[in-house]
UniProtKB/TrEMBL annotation:
Record bears the keyword Coiled coil: yes
Coiled-coil zones: 132-161
The protein's name: PAS domain-containing protein
Domain PAC: 87-141
Native organism: Hymenobacter tibetensis
A Pfam family: PAS_4
Keyword field: Coiled coil
Cited InterPro entries: PAS-assoc_C, PAS-like_dom_sf, PAS_4
Length: 205
């Protein structure tokens, strides 16, 4: 029996896995892999992996193809499994040609050796970590917004204090029902000036 006779078993196994030839042509794809990458078996089987899953030109900083190629080359050279760091690798949007859908993965490449110890197949296993990475990004953005807001508030407070100190006449900011100043002094229970007290004998200007 040829190993390829077991493709129906490979395709039905749980987990998102891709079966590659030593020259990285797609031979099989599990149902979970197809669901995760939003594609169909008939579309990708027989294609070179980087033809089926090219780089997203709008995210060149991801270096997705280059990173996966380096991992596959490592597997061919060492004949050992290679687990990659999390990768930003968008997948083609099959409903809108030329467009991509954001995806983040935890990939692992495992060689399948023949009787002579040569690489016969490479299995790519991926875990979709898109939701986790997006949540982490949203948290960072929220923290950045909060930090920026605090910086603006501090700048405004500093500017107000400067104006207060440089004013040519006496100024004060009263807060609360007891008319407390920013220095902690309150008008409750004492006069603010002789002119504010009836019968003091002083005439307001």
């Amino acid at each position: 029996m040829s190993p390829l006779d077991l493709l129906p078993v490979f395709n039905a196994q749980p987990g998102a896995t891709l079966l590659l030839s030593p020259d990285w042509v797609i031979l099989g794809a599990s149902d979970d892999y197809l669901a995760a990458t939003l594609t169909e078996r008939a579309i990708i089987v027989g294609q070179h992996i980087f033809d089926a899953f090219p780089d997203n030109p709008e995210t060149p900083e991801a270096n997705a193809v280059a990173n996966v190629r380096a991992s596959l080359e490592t597997v061919l050279a060492t004949k050992q499994p290679h687990e990659m760091a999390p990768q930003h690798y968008d997948v083609p949007d099959r409903t809108r040609p030329g467009r991509f859908i954001e995806r983040h993965w935890q990939p692992r490449h495992t060689p399948v050796l023949d009787a002579q110890g040569q690489v016969q197949f490479i299995i790519q296993s991926v875990q979709d970590i898109t939701a986790r990475r997006q949540a982490e990004r949203q948290l960072r953005e929220s923290q950045a917004r909060e930090q920026a807001a605090r910086a603006v508030a501090e700048l405004q407070r500093t500017e107000l204090q400067r104006v207060y100190q440089e004013a040519p006449v006496a100024m004060g900011l009263m807060r609360g029902p007891h008319l407390c100043t920013g220095m902690g002094k309150c008008a409750h229970g004492r006069h603010l000036g002789a002119a504010s007290r009836p019968g003091s004998g002083s005439t307001p200007l």
